[in-house]
Amino acid sequence: MKRKTPNWAVAVVWCAMSGALLALAGCASSGDATSILNADPPEKMYADADRLMSKGKFEDAARKFEDLDRSHPYSPEARRAIVLAAYAYYKAGKTPEAIASAERYTVMHPGTKDAPLAHHIIASSYFDDINTSNRDQAATRKALEQLKILKARYPDSTYANDADNRIRICEDTLAASEMEVGRYYMNQKNFVAAINRFKVVVSDYQTTAHVEEALMRLTESYMALGVTTEAQTAVAVLGHNFPQSKWYKDAYALLKSDGLAPAQSQDSWMTKAWKAVPKFSLGGPG
Question: Could you read off the pLDDT of 17-58 as tens digits, one per residue?
């Protein structure tokens, strides 16, 4: 016959097992604490990360800078470590990580010496991801937003001049995208949708080379819809600002074929949108 184990023996075994588990948990917790307490001093961690950067081991450097920030969050080295982690991730081609680190820096330390660098890293990460004009332009818009912030807040930074050129590229790409979609709608005889696209170019991207064609396409679209006042205004704005443009000559000829001439309407959105509202009376070209 099998002997039954006494209840007190079961209790002893249970207590022993529980104690062992608690001891293991305590050891793990103690080990974690010890690893934090035994972390290298911030200046050494910074130097190690910098050395990894100089060797081109950018991802390892980024992680080391992040370790420094976690281990010594209040040290003088920790703040710069955040932005350098972002830069190292960018150099490693890890753009989501670069953007996340740089954005964290701009939130925690706005207006500091390294803030322009953080915005530059974010803008560069998006700028490098710009698609051609017939593809999605989300990255272009985000790059443009960051570049404008950089120019507005830090006009004297070393990154401002580079931002000027990149802003032009972003705006040209966005304008080209709007033109491509607008022309598609024109071919589909959807003139209202086409006008909305060309409107964006004339309102937001006046300094790009696409604005001349946009005004011509607006002329065509408004004429197709019978909105002659807006068509006349489009040609007037085009002729005043780009009198030698082939687009103006074509737009003027289109008006003339319907017995109309360029005339500016003060109530037109184009009059209000254009940067310098001209006062003029146009005749024909040449």
Answer: 444 444 444 444 444 443 454 478 999 999 999 999 999 999
pLDDT digits (tens, 9 = 90+) for 140-191: 999 999 999 999 999 999 998 889 999 999 999 999 999 999 999 999 999 9
Share of the chain above pLDDT 70, in %: 83
Distance CA 54, CA 181 (A): 46
Say if residues 216 and 195 touch (Cβ distance below 8 Å): no
59 contacts 88 by C-beta, under 8 angstroms: yes
pTM: 0.80
